[in-house]
Write a structure and sequence with these properties.
8 strands, 8 helices, 232 residues, isomerase, carbohydrate metabolism, alpha/beta, TIM Barrel, cobalt, Ribul_P_3_epim-like, globular
Length: 232
């Protein structure tokens, strides 16, 4: 089994989303992917920014004690300036907030880093990415939604990959160390497309927790992403 001690980010990263797991057994769901997953993706929704309500800070604080896998927290909430630092303080490795919900992304990214977390910026399906390319030097992760934020189990939208290509070109042109994450409809049928477009971190919910063996599903996704990355 792999160790997460002195964590060094591998490439590519597979981040199973516990949104697709059984909420009555979240600790077990996380244990099921230990040794295979790189991050645990935690979707926080407030029923305001998106029309769905999921996990909150108390659940994250409790679940953090159940595993050593780094937490990748995705805040689909209004007023992230108020709530995001709490997730960093709770031990999240990466805290991603939405560009559409934040007036000053650079300031919030600095706050998150000061609290000990990596800072991520998310771009929803209908939001152009171009206005945010200048912010890449100030964040650690840029997350492109390949569905409309708010619900798991949606169909992958390949037309969103042009955003991924645009971001990857800017990262390369500026020689930046920024993770390019995709979220939505990632499966064995779609992960290679996303990797070839330039993504290097992949959120997968149903593809992992809908499988008979979640850890094996993670390993298969990682192998596909690695194969596609080699081809690029």
């Amino acid at each position: 089994m792999r160790s997460y001690t002195s964590f060094v980010e591998p490439s590519p990263i597979i981040a199973p989303s516990i949104l697709a797991a059984d909420f009555a057994h979240l600790a077990d769901a996380v244990h099921d992917i230990e040794g295979a997953a790189d991050w645990v993706h935690v979707d926080v929704m407030d029923n305001h920014f998106v029309p769905n309500l999921t996990l909150g800070l108390p659940v994250v604080q409790s679940l953090r004690k159940a595993t050593v896998i780094p937490f990748d927290v995705h805040l689909m909430i209004t007023d992230p300036e108020r709530w995001a630092p709490g997730y960093a303080e709770a031990g999240a490795y990466n805290v991603t907030f939405h560009a559409e919900a934040c007036e000053n992304p650079v300031a919030l990214a600095k706050t998150l880093r000061a609290a000990g977390a990596k800072a991520g910026l998310a771009i929803d399906r209908d939001t152009p990415v171009e206005p945010y390319l200048e912010l890449l030097p100030y964040v650690d992760t840029l997350l492109i939604m390949t569905i409309k934020a708010g619900f798991g189990g949606q169909k992958f939208m390949p037309e969103m990959l042009e955003k991924v290509r645009d971001v990857r070109r800017r990262i390369r042109a500026k020689n930046l160390e920024v993770r390019l994450e995709v979220d939505g409809g990632i499966s064995a049928d779609t992960i290679e497309q996303a990797a070839e477009a330039g993504a290097d971190a992949f959120v997968a919910g149903t593809a992992v927790y809908g499988a008979a063996d979640p850890a094996e599903a993670v390993r298969k996704l990682k192998a596909l992403a690695e194969r596609a990355t080699i081809r690029v």
